[in-house]
Amino acid sequence: xxxxxxxxxxxxxxxxxxxxxxxxxxxxxxxxxxxxxxxxxxxxxxxxxxxxxxxxxxxxxxxxxxxxxxxxxxxxxxxxxxxxxxxxxxxxxxxxxxxxxxxxxxxxxxxxxxxxxx
Length: 118
What we know:
Blueprint: E1 3-7, E2 10-12, E3 18-25, E4 33-40, E5 47-52, E6 58-60, E7 68-72, E8 78-83, E9 92-100, E10 105-108, E11 112-116
Parallel strand pairs: 2-11
Antiparallel strand pairs: 1-3, 3-8, 4-5, 4-9, 5-6, 7-8, 9-10, 9-11
């Protein structure tokens, strides 16, 4: 079983930065985890923002390329999403999801609200 707890959301002005964190706990091999950040705006479908595979390769939605960075600590106990140059359209609830490679089980965090407004 894997538990995920996000933190770091809040209100920020356009052009500002936030760093989201997702604490990973549970007895699972961290090397088997594929890390993802999703977001869901009001009235919109949940969308994939960034992913980090087991080999350390990253992938980003076009709307956040060059502004967001996904990373983990060395032990993969925490997944981060560094968000720079935030825009009002980035306003959403952000969710951390991990996928266990091989078992293909998914675990979601509870979400953290990010609001970009002046």
